[in-house]
Specification:
This protein is mainly alpha-helical and 228 residues long. The protein has helices at residues 2-11, 26-34, 36-49, 56-67, 72-89, 99-118, 184-193, 213-222. The longest helix has 20 residues, at 99-118.
């Protein structure tokens, strides 16, 4: 039974279904993201302590409230999960079944409901749940993400460095036709090359291998300049 509860506790942070936020507040989700190991241990201990209680759901919920900083509404999701586990997967998990069959049962019966209840989602579909993603509305921002030269913290480390920095260019680098002025003719070249990503772009003012909004921003700031 202990193995069963351990597996159940681990699974809540692994499987997501993309639902809207549920009973856990933003503070709850931050707490889960920063204290996941402790929450898993607490859920395991509460499940074992409450296993033979006549109100298993309520017992686990109260236990989570007493032993974590989660709100009562968020803690209740764990009570529901353990109840679902016992009701649907008891014979599928060790020592009666295998861990593989237990995992299949949990996914089929319990995980989606838990995620709906708790609000664990991946809104931007970047493969990282909101309890770990510092911006779950932007698919280019997640832990260990590559930089995009947009001047934003893509990898959630709290810093904007390296390939996350916007590359500044001198004003005359917007002179794309070589006539020593930055004019509508250069703008035509820029717009015609917009979206280029092959690393050899005609209007790549920033030198990052792309012609995108960063090049347009620098171009507009220098528009009208005389390069003579």
């Amino acid at each position: 039974m202990k193995n069963l509860l351990i597996l159940a506790s681990l699974c809540f942070g692994i499987f997501t279904a993309g639902f809207s936020q549920g009973n856990c507040t933003d503070e709850d989700l931050d707490y889960l993201g920063n204290n996941l190991d402790a929450v898993i241990q607490t859920a395991q201990d509460c499940g074992l302590d409450c296993l033979f209680d006549s109100d298993l759901n309520g017992c686990v919920t109260s236990c989570i409230i007493e032993n974590s900083e989660l709100t009562p509404s968020c803690s209740a999701c764990f009570g529901e999960q353990v109840s679902c586990l016992v009701d649907n997967c008891l014979t599928q998990c060790p020592p009666f079944g295998t861990e593989a069959s237990c995992q299949v049962c949990l996914v089929e019966f319990c995980i989606d409901d838990f995620n709906v209840c708790a609000g664990i989602v991946d809104n931007d579909l970047d493969g990282v749940e909101n309890i770990f993603d510092c911006d779950d509305t932007n698919s280019s921002i997640y832990p260990d993400a590559p930089g995009t030269f947009e001047g934003i913290d893509n990898n959630c480390d709290g810093n904007i460095t390296g390939d996350e920095l916007i590359i500044e260019a001198g004003p005359c680098e917007g002179d794309l036709d070589g006539d020593l002025t930055i004019s509508v003719f250069d703008l035509g070249i820029l717009l015609g090359d917009f979206g280029c990503s092959n690393g050899n772009c005609l209007a790549d003012i920033t030198g990052d291998g792309f012609t995108n909004i960063n090049d347009i921003s620098i171009f507009l700031a220098a528009f009208g300049a005389d390069c003579e």
